[in-house]
Amino acid sequence: MKYSFYPGPSTVYKKIPDYVKEAYITGILSVNHRSPEFAEVMEETMKLLKSKLNIPKNYEIVFTSSATECWEVIAQSLLRSKSYHFYNGDFGKKWFQYTKKLVPEAEGLHFDLNDELHPGTLTVPDDTEIICITQNETSNGTQVLNKTIKAFRVKHPDKLIAIDATSSMAGIALDFKQADIWLASVQKCFGLPAGLGILICSPAAIETAFEVDGNIHYNSLVFMLDNVRKLQTHYTPNVLGIFLLMKVLEERENIVSIEEKLKIRYQDINKAILSVNNLKHLCSKEKVRSTTVLAIESNPKIIANIKTNAEEEGLILGNGYGKYSHNTFRIANFPAIPDSDFLHLAKFLKNFASSTDI
Ligand SMILES: *Cc1c(COP(=O)(O)O)cnc(C)c1O
What we know:
The protein is of the alpha/beta class. The protein contains 11 helices and 15 strands.
């Protein structure tokens, strides 16, 4: 038995094999994606996403294949002049770079991973159309708080705000009404196999999409919106992924309860990790630390040692990302990972802490 704490692709819900079987038996995998049977699954999945994650009723949801695809859709379908990116890690930076290739005017500001963003003191160029923020930076275990996003909204009521919440959506209670475009993929906090992206748009974002009216890409947002309004998709979608999302959401509690439980578990994991000498959070400022992805730092020898020892016990710790690949490991605190897996991890850490060969 292996226990994976990798922050994506991550441990999937235990019931996935049952749901796959159910999808097969119901025949949904073989029906046309313009059929009433598929439309029903689409409708129910979107209804559940809105009710379980507390997404405003007037926001619209479209499915893509990945979060990366959502980055491109935003650049192609919503941007005319310029986006402005705040980033402190690799995913935010990649989003900025992808956008810049399509829209060279895009600008960005790198901030330190221990800094809290203060929108009041930050200037954004006037001709910015979209402010882009990575809410949960999976590469370094930091997050941008709901209230910070709200402060951006208050300061820039005329601009759209786009949020990458790939490793936090469905794990924490996001304040959806404070931004216009939210993106994620399902292999992180949703506890599902990869291959499905989710893009959530406010009425203002939708209005912009129709104004821009881009139609030269297969995934132009207006095509997607026109189709989703008929509970269809413009290409054959990941029907299994959508069905699994529906089934998982049916059984989930509201995000507010899920967040509460994850935050308590976060404290327990913290305690277990920090009891080991020489391990500390990469981000020293607790306020901006992610509660869904923990990045733990030490010297490369200890990191390698702890990963190897953990693996011998069947515990897979996430590798550090990018420039932190040797001096950190990462732990996902995602809802689909059972509490019992974390008990194994805590026990391992306790033994490791008391061993003499650190
Ligand atoms: C994983 C991740 C992505 C990329 O997701 P894909 O579904 O692989 O495209 C983008 N942004 C963040 C913050 C991520 O954690």
